[in-house]
């Protein structure tokens, strides 16, 4: 039985002799920013917004068009005229007033558009800034996801270590019990219980090992890599004390959260849209010019006739079926929505910061308590092994003390994970750049 258990624990280790990929948290985040599809999508949206701004700029420039034509077939007009040499008779005369070839050039320069061009450019600029903020928020979210996945794999590895160590200690107890049984100091029941306890820990070790594999797969997914190499995480979970003031955190969040700036931009974009809609009530003025050449022989292009015109045009929409008024009203509704959205967003941000703060305080308290519990449980387990070997405590008591140590170590690892992640979440909640906070090169 004991040989079988040992083989089951060692077999996965024999298969893990492949080369491993060393990976730090900052390197994981860097790979995710390069490979994750969501990060790439946000970058493409910024490019699209930049092109829209360039497109808005083009409205200020003149529009130049050219056109060329040739007549392939035509019906020439024929008129009947009196024959002056033969009174009483008529002659047919063909009149061709068209040219076989013609080229036209035209240029139109907007002079006044009721502010539409200016506001459209401002709208495009605001949209670009909003897209850039979207990209930063997406990168921040991705950084948090990678951090959570990386720390999750670390704590899964710690759970595996704790489970494996518990099984090793159980093996030690089994050897002690077997020796005591051989010497007549332990009963057959004690030996069987020790062996059963050792076997019962095998599924826990297997589950912990599978949890590590799942955590590794999740980390690879969020990083956007398909590497078949196993990951060797080079960072470690450790406690680092942080002192925060809730009032200062709230002030920092309301001053720095990019979502609030985005809401302000939505309001600005609504005002720009309203100005564009109101511009529909104003006339449009444009300066235009045209130049044409025409002739019947391509070989004599330099001798073709030509003409040109320069004109100033004014257009004014007298009736549009209420479309302009509706557009203005829609823009006003969008502005009001942005104002109300900002108020709601401020409340949500304050709630998020308070929740993150209290979670951090709670996890830190749990962590410090767990650290003390682990130290006590380790000492109790050391004494239990000595006392059990001396026969002063029962096998059941020794097992219970060992179980307490295993639970204490697992609880400490979970508390350390929760505290570390809570510290990252609170930085995100106040609007800090997580990539800068975690030292990721940009």
List keywords for this structure.
Outer membrane efflux proteins (OEP); alpha+beta; elongated; 8 strands; two-stranded parallel ribbon; disordered N terminus
The outline comes out as elongated
Name the helicity range. Answer: 55-70%
In terms of DSSP E residues, the strand content is 5-15%
Q: Averaging pLDDT over every residue, what do you get? A: 87
Strand/helix succession: HEHHEEEEHHEHHEEHHH
CATH C-level class: Mainly Alpha
What is the CATH third-level topology name? Outer membrane efflux proteins (OEP)
Total number of strands: 8
N- and C-termini, Cα separation: 55 Å
Number of domains: 1
- Specify Rg, calculated over alpha carbons: 40 Å
Largest beta-sheet characterization: 4 strands, antiparallel
CATH homologous superfamily classification: Outer membrane efflux proteins (OEP)
Count of helix runs = 10
Q: Which blocks of ≥5 consecutive residues have pLDDT under 50?
A: 1-16
The largest beta-sheet arranges its strands as 2-5-7-8
**Structural classification:** alpha+beta
Give the CATH architecture.
Up-down Bundle
